[in-house]
Amino acid sequence: MAIYENGDVTIHYEDAGAGDAVLLIAPGGMRSAASFWTRTSYKPIEQLAASHRVIAMDQRNAGASRGPIAADHGWHTYLADQLGLMDHLGIERFHVLGMCIGGPYIMNLIKAAPERVRSAVIFQPIGVHENEAAFFEMFDSWADELKPGMPNPESDWNAFRANMFADKTFLYVVDDDFVRGCATPILLFEGDDLYHPKPTSERLRDLAPNLTYVADWKEGPAATAAEESVKAFLAAH
User: Fold this and answer.
1) Within 10 A of 112 (CB to CB), how many other CB atoms are there?
2) Residues 6+ apart with CB under 8 A from 21
3) Where residue 29 falls among pLDDT bands split at 50, 70, 90?
4) How far is it, in rounded angstroms, from Cα 234 to Cα 118?
5) How many Cβ atoms sit within 10 Å of the Cβ of residue 187?
6) Contact, 159 vs 139, CB < 8 A?
7) Which of 12, 150, 188, 197 is least surrounded, with the fewest CB atoms within 10 Å of its CB?
């Protein structure tokens, strides 16, 4: 893996293929790392590297990436890492494809830098729907592994967790009005479980004006069709 360094932050990433760039944001919650793509039903590095430049990153303090934490950290902290990596690579405009926690990360990228995001592919986004405790528990499990090597007081971790997952907005980082006005083309693959609630996918579908929705995509012919739909979508944008 290659390394992007920014002060005391080290981001590890894979860079494969050539063509229009696609930034990959992996599933795994706070453990979002490029290695997760080897375990998913859709494998974008395999599928896209023949036609695109594919950049798969480990998020801060996931996989091999490392950085400090602070009480004021949150979604904007990861946004800075993501845009910083693309700046480091000299990539001004790019597609972005993400799964799970990648959903809010992608919407935050669109909100912060809409002129840079050509299009977005989102697989089963996380969201708020009678599952707040599950995300707090997921954060705590991740944090407990890091705490022995970090001197931060417990109050920093609690504030960071709240900044990530206490907001009741359905996608954490954007509200209904933003989604209604979002012109970025989106290809959305439905979620349907505790961490990826179907109502979150349906709400995004119903609000976004330039969105294509796929309900069945994980197995058999539907999985093959999903692979082709991603390629066609990226080619169209």
Assistant:
1) 16
2) 52, 53, 54, 55, 86, 89, 91, 93, 94, 95
3) very high
4) 9
5) 23
6) no
7) 150
| Reported pTM | 0.97
What is the distance, to the nearest Å, from the Cα of residue 67 to the centroid of all Cα atoms in its chain? Answer: 18
Question: Torsions phi, psi of 217, nearest 5?
Answer: -150, 0
Closest CA to 42 of 116, 100, 127: 100
Angle at 58 between CA 39 and CA 76, to 5 degrees: 125
Helix (H) or strand (E) holding 180: helix 176-180
Question: Which residue is it, tokens 């930034």?
Answer: 23
How far is Cα 205 from Cα 219, in angstroms, rounded to an integer? Answer: 22
Alpha-carbon Rg for the chain in angstroms: 17
Pairing type for strands 9-16 and 53-57 reads antiparallel
Question: Contact 139/161 with Cβ under 8 angstroms?
Answer: yes
The arithmetic mean of pLDDT across residues 90-112, rounded, is: 98
pLDDT tens digits along 124-162: 999 999 999 999 999 999 999 999 999 999 999 999 999
Q: Which residues, including other chains, have CB under 8 Å from residue 229's CB and lie 6 or more apart? A: 187, 212, 214
DSSP assignment letter at 58: P
Q: Measure the CA–CA gap between 77 and 61, rounded to whole angstroms.
A: 12
Report the alpha-carbon distance of residue 23 to residue 39 in Å, rounded: 18
The DSSP letter of residue 60 is T
